[in-house]
Design a protein that fits this description.
alpha+beta; two-stranded antiparallel sheet; 10 strands; about 20% helix
């Protein structure tokens, strides 16, 4: 009996952490005599959200998005800022920001109406000058700097098809931080598909398999602000693994404010549930 992983709900950009741990029956760790059980380092794979919504600018604390602010912008539309700079509307100026790596910053029309038609000069001068991507990159690089005695890896969304592993578990922090710096918000958010790809990674049994011992713990940390899109291609054995009868669902049934052609799904929790309740590797055959 070996490694599955469980979900942990956490706030802000950290949507989910998943870990693998041996069951109670797997407390006898099959490691060489030269290695103690407590010396088996854990794997941590970080799935970094590189979807387009990560290009959204942070909002001022005084802005209330529940209010329909009047102004010249379409409150329901999204506006794109290609270059960081000072912009003028209604005889009021404000600095708006682009997103990292050539991506345009995103501002809702309602927020722009607040900025240019309702905010004070002091509030406009105090607008956050970061996007969600800027913040997430700083958080993850700090995590890599502070984390020791584990095998770290990095993955991102592969546009509309699951995940791409950029660096396998065991990559050094400098390489990982350089990869994070190069991420751009240019993908959809296939959360369930991506988690299945990472599940497949942890189920490897070849010489490069990340799980080398039956007591080795493995974590997946998902950094995201997003809702699942283009996320229907999940294997049949994983679908509705948690038995809630709500999968795959639609954007409308899941309460996601996108048109149904965006292919939203509730598969992410099913993949995590299956992985938590099943051994990922049959160690009895080794």
């Amino acid at each position: 009996m070996l490694n599955g992983f469980k979900t942990l709900a956490v706030p802000a950009l950290l949507l989910m952490a998943a870990l693998s741990s041996g069951s109670a029956a797997a407390q006898l760790c099959q490691v060489p005599l030269s290695i103690q059980k407590g010396d088996v380092d854990a794997n941590i794979m970080v799935l970094f959200d590189n979807s387009g919504s990560m290009n959204e600018a942070l909002e001022h604390d005084d802005y209330d998005p529940t209010i329909d602010w009047p102004g010249d912008y379409d409150g329901a539309a999204m506006y794109f800022v290609a270059t960081t700079g000072t912009y003028l509307t209604n005889d009021n100026s404000a600095t708006l920001v682009a997103a990292p790596n050539g991506q345009s910053g995103r501002y809702s029309g309602n927020y722009l109406n607040w900025i240019f038609f309702a905010a004070t000069d002091e509030q406009r001068a105090d607008l956050p000058l970061e996007t969600k991507m800027d913040v997430a990159q700083a958080v993850v690089k700090g995590f890599f700097d502070r984390t020791t005695d584990v095998y770290l890896g990095l993955a991102k969304f592969n546009f509309d098809d699951g995940a791409t592993i950029l660096a396998e578990c065991g990559t050094d922090a400098t390489t990982l931080k350089n990869l994070v710096d190069g991420l751009a918000g240019d993908s959809y958010t296939p959360l369930g598909e991506a988690l299945e790809d990472l599940l497949d990674y942890f189920m490897r049994t070849d010489g490069g398999a990340p799980i080398q011992y039956d007591c080795q713990k493995s974590f997946v940390i998902v950094i995201t602000d997003g809702l699942p899109t283009q996320d229907l291609d999940v294997s049949a054995y994983l679908q509705d693994a948690d038995g809630d009868g709500e999968d795959p669902g639609t954007c409308a049934s899941l309460g996601i404010p996108y048109e149904d052609f965006m292919d939203c799904s509730g598969y992410m929790d099913d993949v995590a549930y299956w992985a938590r309740h099943n051994d990922l590797i049959d160690w009895l055959g080794d």
